[in-house]
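INPUT
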Amino acid sequence: MKRTTLLHALLLWYGLLWTVLAIAPRDRQDWLLENLLALSAVATLAATYRRFQFSTLSYVLITVFLSLHAVGAHYTYAEVPFGFWLRDAFGLSRNPFDRLVHFAYGLLLAYPLRELLVRLAGIESFWSYYLPISGMLAQSGFFEIVEAVVAQIVSPELGTAYLGTQGDEWDAQKDMVAALSGALLCMTAVLIATATSSRSRAVPLQRPTSRRA
Amino acid sequence: MVTQNKRLFGGLLLWYVLLSLWTAYEPADRQFWLLSSLLPGLLVLVLVGTHRLLTFSPLSYILITTFLTLHTIGVHYTYAQVPAGVWLEQAMPFGRNQYDRIVHFCFGFLLTYPIEELFRLTVPLRGWLLYYLPVMTVLGLSGLWEIIESWVAQMVHPELGMTYLGSQGDVWDAQKDMAAAMYGALLCMGLLLWYRRSRGTDVSRSVAESMH
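OUTPUT
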């Protein structure tokens, strides 16, 4: 499949999914809060597309993450049906969907971040593996700070819904551990792929073939 | 200049070792002292070991030593009971001992410049990333510290939960600590950028322009 066709398909998929989930979210205000960052991310990606194009793989990973987030925002994270199913299936004490998405955040977005750093700043070797992990952890920490600020500003009831702590005092730390583990796993995979594939040394550095869509 | 730098390095090292010996004598909580001294001790060992290979500027060594000094004092008394913090609480009604929050801020403010220097020495960083990545690294390390702190609290004193260690019973403690470190890092990089711009030695703008 051509790169541009795939990118259009990703955009169409996200647009459709987002629209369907925007029709009747469980909590409109929470949905709006959750979507502020997601929509600014999409807008940034679209606006910078001509100046900086990610690889096709990165766009796929980003779309998967944004789709998961759209689902979480629709149901409010603590009440995603799939999470309840997981809770019952594994005998957990809470709905683990938000923790899962924190993990997915590290796992899916560490690669695009690495690509950004490698191509924009020419970072190599050790730093090209350390900095994406550090970056995902930092962003995760930043997100926890923003969450805390928002939760203290908005009404307490919505605060807990948005925050998704579900009454756990270590929730912030566990969320960060989830993102950190995801990023570690992702960078390990990249390291293995780089070591085993003969041509892959150039892959993260390669610019996508089609420059203009 | 080289011998001067070496003398400074030796002097700072001597200061840190003497201070550590003094604070190691009868700390308020031996277990906490031991756990909290592991990472700084490791950092000092790495710095000494790589001194020849990777020589930082005198300013960086002074900043690192200042931070380690503040940390060592906090560890000696346990952070929540540092006299300076107690005094501060009496002078201004914060409702808590602020010493740990101050040291979190100092972590960002004092260590961001050495990290920026590490990047300058080891990677050919360009543009705004030279200022952004050190802040990001400090925030990442700060998050890692909060994670380790929560693990230690759960392992050592599971019954005390959040009241153990630095949180002093505040549910938002981790977030506030990370925010403090981030503000410190931002201030440090802001000052550095301002200083370089005023001296005309900042390269980020010209390089950023040449990239497009």
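end of record. Chain A touches chain B through 31 residues (CB under 8 Å).
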